[in-house]
Amino acid sequence: MTRFAHSALAALVALSTPFAAPLGFSQAAHSADLSVYTEDDGSVCGEAWVLNKITDRFSYQVLHVPHLPQVAITDFRNIRQHRYEPASDEWPIGRHYCRATVNLSDGRDRSIFYLIEEGQGFASIGDNVEFCVSGFDRWLVYNGRCRVLR
After folding, report:
1. For 23-33, what is the mean pLDDT?
2. DSSP state for residue 73 in the 8-state scheme
């Protein structure tokens, strides 16, 4: 992806944030409501905005990464936070490490690992979400088998 395309994508993401509405921008359409079966312990892992962001970005990924099957996430199950690293003087960014099982439109279940970084959203507004669906990290961004996010 070129720098220009990446910048354009970042601008589109920025326009789809809740803060864009007061500026006169309309929000991007979100994916259809997902079936969610959660065992979440009250953490941010199962919140709708997190799951919608993962679903939207996964759809973008399968369309733009060569040789990935054209599937979509249809639901999340067994959502849980398996580690939390609170912000501190030593480590200034709070991190929630989450895992779940996703059902894909081809009927297969896959493990998903994701990280929510507090205060690391676009222009430091909101939180950032990084995710890895097992078998879909073709370029080993998360070090094979999603190890970075485990």
Report:
1. 39
2. E
